[in-house]
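Bug report (template v2)

What were you trying to do?
Predict the complex of my protein with glutathione.

What happened?
Run completed; filing so the output is reviewed.

Input:
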Amino acid sequence: MNATISAFQSVPDFAKGFVKDLRVRWAFEEAGLPYGQSLIGAETKDSAEYRAWQPFGQVPAYRDETVSLFESGAIVLHIAESSEALAPRDPQGRARTTMWVFAALNSVEPYVDAVALANFVFADAPWSTEYRAKVVPLRDGRLSALAAWLDGKDYLEGRFTAGDLIMATVLRNVPDHELASFPAVAAYRARCLARPAFGRAIKAQLDAFETQQAA
Ligand SMILES: N[C@@H](CCC(=O)N[C@@H](CS)C(=O)NCC(=O)O)C(=O)O
């Protein structure tokens, strides 16, 4: 596969362990596949060369001998094509893995992020309380539906897939005390994040920052 991913050379402390190349690192770790890193700085992110790889100047981007792409969900699904650890091989299992990746990114993440914006980015804005009061019920509606779906299941489709990987990373942006109202979802998130491959992915991201800092 000979894959390389882009990641940042450095980020503020609060973002360490949360930058979205983590999803791709986690997928590689679950699949047991090696990958290289292209660590980029602020000057590279806006270069024409990098924008040709990732049009929005974001991380992660991905390339191997035959494929170049961006968007963490698309990259994780691409890796899943090479690994049964991330998606069953039968057509129904593969299609449903794709479905859950989209569900996490399209039906859950926008609402989780809307509340995160209210909690952190716009916390001091005069309209923040009103905005938060509008978006929390929307997010909680999705969490409640997820709790109902998970009832009695360890993972979204019974076994771990790329859909769980992406869903768990989305759920990491829900503060613990807010997720506590949804015990089945909190337990599911904890189950996903307890996977050894997740621990290795976090370590790989943090190690990359440390190596750059020491250089
Ligand atoms: N939808 C993209 C989002 C990627 C993203 O938000 N990357 C952030 C880091 S977590 C980034 O590069 N931010 C810098 C910027 O937007 O300029 C994906 O999932 O790959």
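What did the reviewer find?
The chain has a mean pLDDT of 97. The chain has two domains: 3-85+197-214, 91-195.
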